[in-house]
Design a protein that fits this description.
This protein is of the alpha+beta class. It has ten helices and 15 strands.
Length: 340
């Protein structure tokens, strides 16, 4: 009742913000993720506890969902996640699925998996423990807000299934390679299957097979409609979409054309001079001839509709879809991340 009295609402909001700020930061750890499982999880927990942070260990979807629910109930603002891209995607999906205007915490993504594309975009070139220490110091010294950035999520939709949300999508041959790489890792033991070089060794094997025409990977027949950015139909080699910026490194396979909140690249199987243009494609230095008329569709857009897609990989996790119904990828809600 008192909330309706003029002048009291700002007071209540200030008290609520003060209570939220006084809560300790929370570190969510998935000790089963690749890097975390090699002693990093224990080291990170020790660092966090020494700084007064709460540590929550998760080992699956149910415990992760419960941990995020508890954070939301307490309005625990500073949340750090040490895990692979799949666990990070699950956190992002849960937060982005909240109603418009709902309260959300700030996130610090620590590299605990194999690829760690999300962490590499937000804290490039920084290892997990250093990033954790920087985040905890910024909270203690009240510098956290100055290092926050917003990133929009991607929303991947195929009715009637609920939307899935993440930060990057790979389809066509990209999805096939990711699935093959996962199968390669779980198909045996040894350093080349389970170690740091497992992904690289799998990719090299696929390249050798492809050069012999024996990779077993095929280009799907797709209809891709990105609105004002362009459209084409036919066999598609590569399809990528993201809201990440790829701030460091050479890999940034998106043209700087148009805008719209997300970035898209789709390449036809019959794209003109594909192999000669590959260095330009990978580094985002598209020439004027690399356009939709020549089999290259790349740049910023608000959404893309894809028909014929049998599956895709979202933040490294593979999902199957019905090729008879369109898949829509659009910009989703934005979240706040601690970045360095």
């Amino acid at each position: 009742m008192n909330a309706g009295v003029p002048g009291l609402m700002p007071v209540f909001e200030s008290l609520d913000a003060l209570a939220t700020a006084s809560l300790p930061p929370c570190l969510i750890v998935n000790p089963l993720s690749f890097r975390a499982s090699r002693g990093l999880a224990e080291q990170a927990q020790a660092v966090a506890k020494a700084r007064g942070a709460e540590v929550v260990v998760v080992d699956g979807p149910a415990s992760l969902t419960a941990a995020v629910d508890a954070i939301l109930a307490r309005r625990q603002r500073h949340v750090m996640v040490l895990a692979g891209d799949g666990t990070v995607r699950a956190v992002i999906d849960q937060l982005a699925s909240l109603p418009a205007g709902a309260w959300r915490p700030d996130l610090l993504v620590l590299p605990g998996g194999r690829t760690n594309l999300t962490a590499a975009d937000l804290t490039p070139g920084v290892d997990a423990l250093t990033s954790l220490q920087r985040g905890l110091a910024a909270i203690a010294e009240k510098r956290w807000d100055s290092a926050l950035v917003e990133r929009a999520t991607l929303s991947i939709e195929q009715a009637p299934a609920p939307a899935r949300r993440g930060l990057w999508v790979g389809a066509a041959l990209i999805d096939g390679v990711i699935r093959r790489t996962h199968a390669h890792r779980i198909g045996g033991d040894g350093a080349l299957r389970t170690g740091h070089l497992s992904t690289l060794s799998s990719l090299l094997r696929l390249v050798v097979l492809a050069m012999r025409g024996r990779s077993g990977l095929s280009c799907p027949e797709l209809r891709v409609d990105a609105g004002p950015l362009g459209r084409f139909e036919g066999k598609v080699n590569l399809l990528l979409a993201t809201t990440l910026q790829h701030r460091q490194g050479l890999f940034d396979p998106y043209a700087t054309r148009a805008d719209g909140g997300m970035r898209l690249t789709a390449v036809s199987r019959h794209a003109t001079r594909f192999y000669r243009s590959l260095p330009r494609l990978i580094t985002g230095r598209f020439s004027r001839a690399m356009d939709a008329a020549h089999g290259y569709l790349s740049g910023g857009c608000e959404h893309v509709e894809i028909t014929g897609l049998a599956g895709y990989s979202l933040d490294g996790e593979a999902y199957d879809t019905d090729p008879a119904r369109p898949v829509v990828i659009r910009r989703g809600p934005s979240l706040r991340f601690f970045a360095t």
